[in-house]
Amino acid sequence: VQLQASGGGLVQAGGSLRLSCAASGDFFKMNVVGWYRQAPGKPREMVATIHRGDITTYAPSAKGRFAISRDDAKMTIDLEMNNLKPEDTAVYYCEARIVGSTEYWGQGTLVTVSS
Question: How far is CA 87 from CA 46, 59, 111, in A?
Fold first, then answer.
């Protein structure tokens, strides 16, 4: 599986962005897909994941502002981000995995939120 993230950019605080991750290969086999982020000097952290059955999980900082979705027909993983804050500034990575097996990562897309 190969993943290609896009949609990052510069946005003012309070604005919105939609990240998209285009997949190729056996995407349908992935049990869990998600978005992670890494801010400068900080470890990578989970933002949102979606499991089979459309079971979603969100980081507390993302809950109520972000929405993750998966489209197996289009082979995409999207992250709708609203009411962005400067602390959301980070490189965002999409991820897909078969639980207990291989995981795949996209190359990252930079989101910068200005105050």
Answer: 14, 13, 10
Residues 103, 45: contact at Cβ < 8 Å?
A: no
99 has pLDDT over 90? no
- pLDDT digits over 36-88, tens only? 999 999 999 999 999 988 999 999 999 999 999 999 999 999 999 999 999 99
Beta strands in the chain (DSSP E): 2-6, 9-12, 17-24, 32-38, 45-51, 55-58, 66-71, 76-81, 90-97, 103-105, 109-114
Please provide the size of the chain in residues. 115
Euclidean distance between CA atoms 31 and 98, whole angstroms: 5
Place of tokens 């809950």: 63
Give which of 20, 33, 10 is closest to 84, Cα–Cα.
10
pLDDT band at 12 (very low <50, low <70, confident <90, very high): very high
What is the three-class DSSP state of 27?
Answer: helix
